[in-house]
Amino acid sequence: MIVVHHLNNSRSQRVLWLLEELGVPYEIQRYQRDARTMLAPPELKKVHPLGKSPVITDDGRTIAESGLILEYLVERYGAGKLAPPAGSEERLRYRYWMHYAEGSAMPPLLLKLVFDRIESGPVPFFIRPIARGIARQVKQTFITPQLQLHLDYLEGELSRSEWFVGNEFTAADIQLSFPLEAAALRAGLDQSRPRLHAFLQKIHSRPAYRRALERGGRYDFGPKE
């Protein structure tokens, strides 16, 4: 039996969604973030040395990193679903998006989270103006332009097909859901980018997505992410 070591408000929600799409049975081992620090509990280090989520255990294997987990599950349990045929051009595009989601799309979103906290969080009064001024400058000159660049790129890519790989829904769309949902809540993704906005509406209406939320619990991408 697949066990999903599921941390609240984390990327592991995508793993639950994929398993619901595949119709594969699984169990959930739940972990809660520390209410003050929002870090994962130390118990997760008993599963994987980094103590982070997502991580799954299956058939004696411990597998971490969301992209690898999704690829592993599709290859082992998908029976040809949710991925293009091996060796096709679509498969190469599929693998690109699986890596892009965390390798390119997430870093500016995480930077925005960090610098938002610096700008608005508690800081000793004697360095507050300096810290907040630096945070604003970094956001204006680097983070915001990077976020706009990626959102414009993704909006343009969806002009090519209904989903990111083609006209069929794949696990790459699941992988891309996390940065796009985060962008909708804290990085300016709205109806001004109609294709991305429609993408989010479509994934939210999928029955498997809704079942995953029911099993894993609703999450947000605000300061707690």
List keywords for this structure.
225 residues; alpha+beta; disordered C terminus
- Please list the strands of the largest sheet in the order they lie side by side: 2-1-3-4
Helix content: 40-55%
Could you tell me the mean pLDDT?
A: 91
Helix/strand structural class? alpha+beta
What summary fits the major beta sheet? 4 strands, mixed
| Mass-distribution shape | globular
Fraction in beta strands: 5-15%
N→C terminal distance: 29 Å
Protein name: Glutathione S-transferase
Family: Belongs to the GST superfamily.
Organism: Steroidobacter flavus
Domain GST C-terminal: 87-225
Short précis:
This is Glutathione S-transferase. The chain is α+β, with helices and mostly antiparallel strands. 54% of the residues lie in helices and 9% in strands.
Task: Describe this entry's structure for a reader.
It is built from seven helices and four strands, in the order βαβββαααααα. With 225 residues, it is of the alpha+beta class. It has a four-stranded mixed sheet with strand order 2-1-3-4, with helices on one face. α1 links the parallel β1 and β2. α3 packs antiparallel against α4. It is globular. The relative contact order is 0.14. The C terminus is likely disordered. This is Glutathione S-transferase. It comes from Steroidobacter flavus. Belongs to the GST superfamily. InterPro entries: Glutathione-S-Trfase_C-like (IPR010987), Glutathione-S-Trfase_C_sf (IPR036282), Glutathione_S-Trfase (IPR040079), Glutathione_S-Trfase_N (IPR004045), GST_C (IPR004046), Thioredoxin-like_sf (IPR036249).
